[in-house]
Every structure is written in structure tokens, then in C-alpha cells.
Amino acid sequence: MDKSWAYISNYSIYVAMAIFALSFLAHAFETAFAVRAPKNADTTEGTLLTKTLDYGRTEKAARVATVLMVLATVALAFGVIARGLSNGHVPWGNMYEFSITGALTFVAAYLVALRKYDLRWLGLFISFSVLLTLGTAITLLYRDSAPLVPALKSTWLVIHVVAAIISGGIFLLANVVAGAYLYLENAESKGGRPGWAFRVPTLDVLDQLSYRLVAFVFPLWTFSVIAGAIWAEAAWGRYWGWDPKETWAFITWVAYAAYLHARVTVGWRGKRAAWLCIFAGSTFLFNYVYINIWGTGKHTYSGL
Amino acid sequence: MTQTELPELGFLSLLRYIWRQLTSMRTALILLMMMGIAAIPGSLIPQRISNPIAVRDFFAAHPTRAQWYDRFSLFDVYGSSWFSAIYILLFISLIGCVLPRTVEHFRAMRAEPPATPRNLNRLEQHQIFEGNGTELAEATRWFKKKRFRIRQGMQDISAEKGYLRETGNLFFHLSLILILIGVGFGSLFGMRGEAIVNVGERFINVPTSYDSLALGKLTNDLNASPFVIEVNDFVATYNPKTNAATDYSMNVTTTDEDQVREQLVKVNKPLTFGDTRVYLQANGYAPIVTVRDSTGSVVFQGPVTFLPQDGNLRSIGSIKVPDANPQVGFVASLLPTYQRSESDGGISVYPELLRPKMLFSVWSGDLGLDSGVPQSVYRIDTTEMTNLGLGSLSVGETFQYPGGTITLEKIIPWVNLQIVDDPGKSYALFGGIAAILGLIFSLYGRRRRIWVRINGTQVEVAALSKNNAPGLEKEIAELVAHLKGNA
Ligand code: HEM
């Protein structure tokens, strides 16, 4: 193991965390001051507010927040790559490495989506989630750089895990959006959005957005499961064995298929769809956290 | 439905009713959710197929609960009748849903797009502007260039694109059936077995060579020709810091239909004989011992397979000498890198043979081999035997006990080979690839209709997309700009 690269990697992760924390503060500042809630205004119409409120007030803060996010992402990417160099293999050998790579794709997905949609209202959640993930990773999950166990030595590892991590990042993003939907739906039915949330798009847009995100990654998740099966066939002599990890990947797949069906064929929208989306996302998280750490079976690579 | 109406509901219409219910979207959704939920218990409760030892332990720890679990097949969830019932119903529903749609889609694809509706202004994208009369011809050109399918009216055009979305969707659902066929085929006609082979020895692919062998329900013999694998060498390397294995490699000479080959097997690189694949599954050690009786003649010689117990390959085993008089047995453990621990006695601190030691107790009496009760090769039932003492040996040493001697000649590694034939897996793989392709077209495809109508000098453009696919607005803007640009 190359000690100095491992050291550089850890250092970069700490730097990234510090910048994410600053970005979080900038986002919080922006969220709090961007919009002055009009007194007694009809707050249910998101579009109405754009006329009455001045976004320019905190445009600078918003820009700073996004620039910080980009810088932090670069530092994080550097940390992940350095981790790979220290190991001599792709940095997906244990749960610490899955987590930092997962955080990277999560925030990268956000930054890519930001180029197309005005998603800055999400930045607060994103910087917070990434900070939380990295913090947990480096304090609880950290393991010294080590070579891979033999079954992980395969190009399918790269393919399968990359697909799974990207899918996971986007599933969780869809969950954040669905969660925002449920929160705001509740707030609006009780009289109105809280001031900081005026900027968040209308419920309809949120509803569509979480669907789009899921529909976008579902083929990738399917691919990831199949790539895992191909790898399992090469490593263990069977492509499917109902190992707990495989079982939960299947459950996640079925849950999202049910979500897509509920929307497309049965016409679910809004609250029910959002709950189903969150349920499906939870099966993914459960698989990642519970089965990795406490599960038995062949997929025990958490290194814990 | 009232009582009096029931008799009129004939048998056929009842069947039709059930069929319609089963193939409805709502039922499909419920079955999908049930399928997900039904898969959960098998991941939380130990399963016989993957972890029989844990099931046995569970029975020992919670006898009554285990019996109840067993009654509901909770130790065999994925082979249980209730799990099968759910997926069979789901697939019947799938077939009932997809086949009629395929036929319908096939027809629709060859028919013209539907005629222009009278009221275009109710549609999501609708624009009216002044034109000069060339718009219909221009629109036709534009649609043709963009490969829309069009229906030309006197004063209007109706154009449609994106049939690939439905095609992909049907393709996806049909490929799920192919995956199921592949899985079923493999479990009916496949086979799977395991064999432990000492380094330096040979494995011949005949049923008696296997330590365990499971044939599919409709398989009655090994599917492959009797190939031979001679294990020349096996090397495992470990990380000195974590003691975890970093690599395995096995050198073999294989003979298959008179073709002799030297091959290297690694963890992710199995051997292939036709459809049969051979995997390197596990490894351990076998001490080669010589046991002599009091006169000095050899009563036992050979390698004895020991079973690893932990990551440092502390292994247990038994050496049974039925030819000695009285019979002798050694209950032994093998420690590849021996160290004394205050609490546990002898332990192994590294999986390689750095300081190997065999610790054992010697027993004399009846080994019970003729009792007819099957015995573990790794254990000895010592209830009918007397203990003659404890010993320990390094390689090359001899230990003397009352009645004979035992010599530890050498320690060789063994490998556990897993031999698998799954004739269904290529169907499943093919189905999987088709499913992904189908999904991509289904989820990324955009199906939309666009209409253009001329009314005097007025040009009316309207469009409709299925599933609210984005991008229609842009497309319409493009079309309108094109029409205006030529005006
Ligand atoms: C193994 C079970 C099944 C899985 C995994 C599955 C998965 C999917 C997926 C991923 C979609 C795409 C949704 C979208 O366009 O956003 C879909 C659509 C659809 N599925 Fe299924 N499905 C299954 C069973 C069924 C069954 C049993 C039926 C019929 C009763 C059915 C009928 C449909 C229909 C009609 C669509 C809508 C296509 C459209 O209009 O775009 N599916 N399914």
C-alpha cells in the first residue's frame, strides 16, 4: 500500500468536508434571506411569488454556495482517486470506500442536473447529506487502505458497482424530492409554505421531477443488477442465489417497477406516489446500511 | 351482485371475469408489490439453500418458533408454494396483458395515425397564426425529414412518432418471460456439485467423485462427458496486515475428449468444459500422516482432509485407523502458523504454513464405522473409546503412544471445486440484455402526435404527448418557426 496516497486521500476528504460545510452555511444563508415572505400573500402559487420577491438580494450568496460545492466536489473526487491510487485498485473495496464514492456521485448528479434545472433550493439538503455521509464514513466506517479480497478482482466490479452507486445517488435524490413534496404538500394544506420554501418549485413540478429521476435511472439499476448476476456467475458459480444482498437489490427493483406502474398504468400522483417512491428508496438504503453491516452472506465486503 | 343474478353468470363468463381481473393493471400492481414483500422474509431468516447450518442452529435455539416457520416454508421461501404462486400469477397476468397489446401494437404500427380531431384548441400545445397556403406542403416535408408517420387530409396533416416506446415496453415485458424460462430451465435440467481435491491428485467427472451432487428435477445424469482435472499446484497469497486472502491461483492439467491442456484457474476465471463450468470455491490443508502399530508395520498412510474453522485456517479433522487392533482414532486440529494463547491454547495467527503444528488426542476402541450410522469424516464419536493421551507434531516429527506411532510427513493444500452446469443461463442472460434495451426505449422514448390544419389563411398547430414526455414544446416551436420562416 502506498502510504502517502492514503494520507493525501484522507486529507482531501477532510478538506472537502470543510468546504461542504461552508457551502452548507452559504446555502442556509441564501435560503433564509433570498426570499422575503410577503405578508398575507397567497403563498400557494409558486409562480406568483417570483413577481413579488427579489432573488437578486442573495444571488451572490447562491453563487458562492454553488462555487463552494464545486470546489468541495473536486476535493472529494481527488480524495476518491487518491484512495484508489493508494490501494492499487478501484476504490470500492469496503464500505468506507463505497460511501465516499457514493457521496461523490450524489453531489455530482446534483451539479450536472443544476446545469439544466434551477435546483439550487436543493443545495441545502445536498450539502448536508454529503457532509453527513462523509462524516459517518470517516469516523465509523474508516478502514486502512487494503487490497481487494479475491472475488472482488474483476472488471465486473467496476461496472456493477459504478452502476449501483450512480443509481443509488439518483434514487436518493428522488427521495429528497419526494420528501420535499410531502413536506410542502402538508404545509400548503395547512395554510402555506414556510418562507424559505417559496423558491422551491410547485408541487406538480416536484411530483414530476421525482418520477423523471426514477424513470431515468431505472434502466441503469436494472443493468447493475444484471451485471452483478454476471459477476456472481463468474465468481461463485451461480448468477442468482437469493443472498440477502441480492434479495434486497431485487426488492428495490420490484419496488421501483411498482412505482413506475403505479404512475404510468394506474395513474397514481402526488402523495401516494411520493410515499411509494420513498418506500422504494428505503429498500435501497436498507440494503446498503443493514445488509452490508449486519447481514450474512457472500457480500460481506464492508470491511467492518 | 344479488343472489338471483348469480346463476346467470355461466362458467365461461366467470372464467372471463377472473381473467379480466387477473390481467388488470391494478392486479398487476398488487402482485408486483406482493412479490417484493414476499421476498423479504428470506433475507432475514436463514435459508436452507444458502445456509443450512444456520437453519439447524435456529432449530436448536428456538424449537417451537422454528416449527412454525417451517410450516410456512420460511426456511425455503424462494422455493415455497406461496412464493411460486405469486410469481406464477404475476407472469400469467403479464402474458395476459402483453400478448394482446403486442397484437394491437403490431396493427397500430401499420395503420395510419388517427385523423385530426375537430377541436385542436383543447390540446396541450396549440398555436394559430397567419400563413400563406404553403404550410401543408412545408409541414409534410418537415415531418418526412423527421421521420414521422403521417396521414394526409384535404386541409390537415396528422403525424405521429415514437412507436418505439411501446415496442420497447412490450419487448421489455416479453424478455422478463425469457428470464423466467431461463431460470426454470436451469433448475430443471442443470446440475451442481462439489468435490474436494488434494493438490497432486485428480478429479474425474463421474458421480462417485463428488462429495455432494444435486441434479435438477429432470436431470438424471451428469450432463458433461467425463473430463479429468489434475491439480498440479495451488497458491494462495494473503495480506500480512489483515490476513485476508489477496489472490488464489490453481495450476491444472485437464483432459477433455483426448485434449490435454495446462490451465490456470483463478477466482473469477472458472474452467469450462462445454456447458459445464468448474469454480475454485475454497481451500484448506490436508496433513499426510503415517500410523504404525507396535510392530512397526504401517496401518494407515495418506492425506487426511481437514476442515477450516476460521480466517487463519485453523482446521479440524480426524484420522481414523480401522486396521489397527484395537482401532485407533486421532481427534486433531491443524494450526498453519502456531502460537500459544493464554485463553484459547493453541491458535493459528496466519493462514499460510509458516509454523504448522498438529495437536491431537489419541483414542482407542471402537470407531463405530460398522454401526451403519453415517459419520462425519471430520469427527469421531469417542463414547466407546478410551483416551490414550494428547500430542502435538511439527512436520517430520513422530509421536509415540501406547500401541504405536504417528508421523506427520507433510502438509498439502486441497481445493474445493464447484462443478456447475446451468443450461438455462444463456436464456436468462439474453433476456436480461433484451430487458435493458427494451427499458431504454420504453423509458427514454417519446411518443407524440402533431397536427397541422389550414383554415383559409389561418394555420393551426397542435400536439399531444403520451406520458408528458418533455421536449414537445421545443419541437413545436421548431415546427412553427420552420413554417413561418417559409411564409
Ligand atoms: C415482473 C413484473 C413486471 C415488471 C418488472 C414491470 C415493469 C415495468 C416497467 C419498468 C414499466 C415502464 C414504466 C414507464 O413507462 O414509466 C412498465 C410499464 C407497463 N407495464 Fe409492466 N411490469 C411488470 C408486469 C406487468 C404486468 C403484469 C402488466 C399487465 C397487467 C404490465 C403492464 C404494463 C403496462 C401497460 C405498462 C405501460 C407502458 C406505457 O404506457 O408506457 N406490466 N412495466
TrEMBL record, chain A:
One of its GO terms (biological process) is cytochrome complex assembly. Keywords: Cytochrome c-type biogenesis, Membrane, Transmembrane, Transmembrane helix. The keyword Zinc-finger does not apply. Its main location: membrane. Residues 92-298 form the Cytochrome c assembly protein domain. One of its GO terms (molecular function) is heme binding. It is a multi-pass membrane protein. InterPro entries: Cyt_c_assembly, Cyt_c_biogenesis_CcsA, Cyt_c_biogenesis_CcsA/CcmC. It is found in: Membrane. The chain crosses the membrane at residues 12-29, 61-82, 94-114, 121-142, 154-184, 213-236, 248-266, 273-291. GO terms for cellular component: plasma membrane. The keyword Transmembrane helix applies. NCBIfam families: cytochr_II_ccsB. PANTHER family: CYTOCHROME B_B6 PROTEIN-RELATED, HEME EXPORTER PROTEIN C. This is Unannotated protein. It comes from freshwater metagenome.
UniProtKB/TrEMBL annotation, chain B:
Keywords: Cytochrome c-type biogenesis, Membrane, Transmembrane, Transmembrane helix. It is a multi-pass membrane protein. One of its GO terms (cellular component) is membrane. The keyword Metal-binding does not apply. Residues 25-476 form the ResB-like domain. The keyword Nucleus does not apply. It is found in: Membrane. The chain crosses the membrane at residues 28-45, 82-100, 170-191, 427-445. One of its GO terms (biological process) is cytochrome complex assembly. PANTHER family: CYTOCHROME C BIOGENESIS PROTEIN CCS1, CHLOROPLASTIC (PTHR31566:SF0). This is Unannotated protein. The lineage of its organism: unclassified sequences, metagenomes, ecological metagenomes.
